[in-house]
Design brief:
The structure is a single chain. The chain is α/β, with parallel strands linked by helices and about 300 residues long. Helices cover about 30% and strands about 25% of the residues. It contains ten helices and 13 strands. A hairpin with a 2-residue loop joins strand 1 and strand 2. The longest helix has 16 residues. The radius of gyration is 21 Å and the shape is globular.
């Protein structure tokens, strides 16, 4: 029995990296039956055990327990009660936002962070296309992002056209498995290519990125960057609903959680009850209204 990591999933075919080999695998009968009942039995990043056949293909016999995952609520009304796992066994969730075209949204960033924390993954915020901002806009964004740094969340400002922040980002993701997430058009694939160039320029070695050349992502794909860094590039997502992320939400909004301990009622909704410490903090300017509204909205989505 051999072990490996799922690099890509395509209509019942699983691309597995085992050592230096790339093997195309299918599911054994028992797992195939389970697959018809579970929409996401195996995702990119999963570790599996498989049997290699004489023709060089393989049969997946076992799926190993996941140490982490990043997930969202299934998109569309028919799938909204299902969990959609984006990637498994990831160390870092690189939350990519475009400074312009299409622009960034702090409420959406909070969603990604909460989901990553719920899945036991370290969130990292990237503001890409930084070169498109004028000096005043750059200063404002840097100031606004201090809120995340105060919560010990790493923030990068990058530009692939000017090679800004790429080396620093490359150094941060070394020896880790990272997943790029974000909306379409924010530059996830361009960052993947820029990080590869950074690796090549540092080592003077031939690129070790797997399977594709320059690309735009149509399905989740794991790439090897050098010998120790792995990147999962994912398609852009128009929706990112919360699914079973209450722990991550409460962890990220820990300041509001701490204040809520002083509410008169233990089940206070922080909307209309008397003696609400959170509403009092809002009135005293200790909490921003937009953050409180986002906190309440995210919690409501998990119910």
């Amino acid at each position: 029995m051999l072990s490996g990591t799922v690099m890509n999933v395509q209509k019942g075919l699983y691309i597995i990296k085992s050592g230096h080999e790339i093997i195309k695998c299918k599911l054994r009968g028992k797992l195939l039956k389970l697959h018809t009942q579970q929409t996401q039995l195996i995702v990119v990043g999963d570790n599996v055990n498989f049997e290699k056949l004489m023709d060089g293909t393989g049969i997946i016999q076992e799926i190993c327990e996941r140490k982490s995952k990043i997930a969202r609520r299934g998109a569309g009304s028919k799938k909204s009660h299902y969990e959609q796992i984006i990637a498994a066994n990831v160390d870092l969730a690189l939350l990519v936002n475009a400074c312009k075209n299409p622009g960034y949204n702090f409420n959406l960033i909070d969603r990604y962070i909460s989901s990553a924390k719920s899945g036991n993954i370290e969130p990292v915020i990237i503001f890409n296309k930084f070169d498109l901002l004028n000096n005043d806009e750059k200063e404002k964004l840097i100031k606004d992002s201090e809120y995340y740094k105060e919560k010990n969340i790493t923030v990068f400002f990058t530009s692939t056209s000017e090679n800004t922040g790429i080396t620093e980002l490359y150094d941060y993701i070394k020896n880790k498995v990272s997943v790029f997430t974000g909306q379409s058009g924010v530059g996830k694939s361009s960052l993947t290519n820029a990080l590869e160039d950074s690796y090549v320029s540092k080592t003077s070695h031939t690129s070790e990125k797997l399977y594709k050349g320059r690309h735009t992502t149509t399905s989740s794909y794991m790439y090897q960057l050098g010998e120790n860094a792995m990147i999962i590039d994912t398609p852009g997502m128009r929706e990112f609903g919360m699914f079973d992320s209450e722990d991550g939400i409460r962890s990220f909004f820990s300041d509001i959680e701490e204040i809520s301990k002083n509410c008169r009622f233990s089940d206070c909704s922080h909307t209309h009850e008397p003696g609400c410490a959170v509403k009092e903090a809002l009135e005293n300017g200790l909490i921003e209204e937009s953050r409180l509204n986002n906190y309440l909205k995210l919690l409501q989505e998990t119910k």
